[in-house]
Each structure stands twice: as structure tokens, then as C-alpha cells.
Amino acid sequence: MLKTKEDIITKIHLIISVAIVIPTSVIYGFNPSSRFDIHLNTIDELNQFKAIMGLYLGFSILWILGIFRANFLKLALMSNIVFMLGLGLGRLVSLCIDGTPTFAYQFGTIAELCLGLYGFIALRHHKYPN
After folding, report:
1. Total tally of structural domains belonging to the chain
2. What residues form the membrane-spanning segments (predicted)?
3. Does the residue 130 lie in any domain?
4. Nearest-angstrom CA–CA distance, 48 and 13
5. Which domain holds residue 95?
């Protein structure tokens, strides 16, 4: 898992992502109003948030595989970059168009952009076998 300095540099953001995304997915799927200013009123809204939960958990599984299995690492790094930058950039668009969200989403935007950018560093730093 984290045996060398290179392992730490390459995988630490995957571990941080999993530690944040799994609990967030469960909150989104079962009780988003407990932590966020989200109030779901229809079955379709509930269904959409359960789908988001599934998507988040699916990516988390891929990142866990990348942490523990070398043959999944590059895919895990690339998917984490796309996931985090996609969320972060989408939130920046919302910030510009919709206004300022709650602190949790402001912090999330910064964290997602940082994790995505760090993923680029990790992807470039890691030495992959030919």
C-alpha cells in the first residue's frame, strides 16, 4: 500500500478521496439534508441522489483497487483527476452563475480542484512499467 515515499506521493490523494467520497456518498444517498442545504421532495429527486451515491461508491472502489493493486493504479489516478476536476469545475460554473453556496460546498470546490491537480502531479511523478 504505502511502502515507499513514491507510494505516498502517488497514492495519498486517492486515500484522501476515498475517505471523503464514501461518507459523502452515503449522506447524499440517505440523508442529504442532515449535512447540506438540500431538501428532496419527490421520488425522482431521491432516485437521483441514490444514483449519485452509486456513482461515488463506484469510483471509490476503483480508487481502492488502485491503492492496493498496481495494475489499477494508472486508471485510478486518471479517473480521480477527471472526477475531482469535473466536480470542481462544475462547482466553479455554479458559483459564477448561481451565486455562493454554503461553506461545505465552497470548501468542497477548493478540495476537489486541489485533489484533481495533485492527481496530475502524481500521474507524472509515478514510474510505470513498460
Report:
1. 1
2. 12-31, 51-68, 75-97, 103-123
3. no
4. 27
5. 5-125
